[in-house]
Amino acid sequence: MKKNITLAIIDDEWKTHLRQMDELKQSVQLAVHEQKDPLLIYKFEAFQLFKNNDRQGKQRYSIFPFQSRTTYTSSCGTRGSRPSAQ
After folding, report:
1. Which residue of 9, 31, 33, 50 has the lowest C-beta tally within 10 Å?
2. How far is Cα 46 from Cα 50, in angstroms, rounded to an integer?
3. SS3 for 86?
4. What is this structure's pTM?
């Protein structure tokens, strides 16, 4: 189950990344009118997007295993953990 959830998250993030890259491509095309080198701008901005997505992904996946269990207090006052509803 965790594998399917992880793959779904990665797939969604990849689609978002591809949309961002399309938007970047369109914005870089406008740089030609400003007489700037569009390839340099594209490389720089694409790398910035990659670094941001990589950092965010590492943060998400580092806390993901801990989110699969919830802590609860039973009626007798003892604490424990139980699997979340899947």
Report:
1. 33
2. 6
3. coil
4. 0.59
Mean pLDDT of the chain: 75
pLDDT-based confidence at 74, cuts 50/70/90?
very low
User: For 13, phi and psi rounded to 5 degrees?
Assistant: -65, -35
Residue 67: which pLDDT band, with cuts at 50, 70 and 90?
low
Query: Phi/psi at 85 (nearest 5 deg)?
Result: -65, 130
Q: Name the helix (H) or strand (E) containing 73.
A: strand 69-73
**pLDDT computed for residue 57 by the predictor:** 76
- pLDDT for the residue numbered 63: 63
Q: In sequence order, what DSSP letters do the residues of 15-71 get, joined into one string?
A: HHHHHHHHHHHHHHHGGGGGT--HHHHHHHHHHHHHHHHHHHHHHHHHHHHHHTEEE
Helix 38-67 vs helix 2-29: crossing angle, to nearest 10: 160
Dig out the tokens for 20 from the structure.
Answer: 């961002």
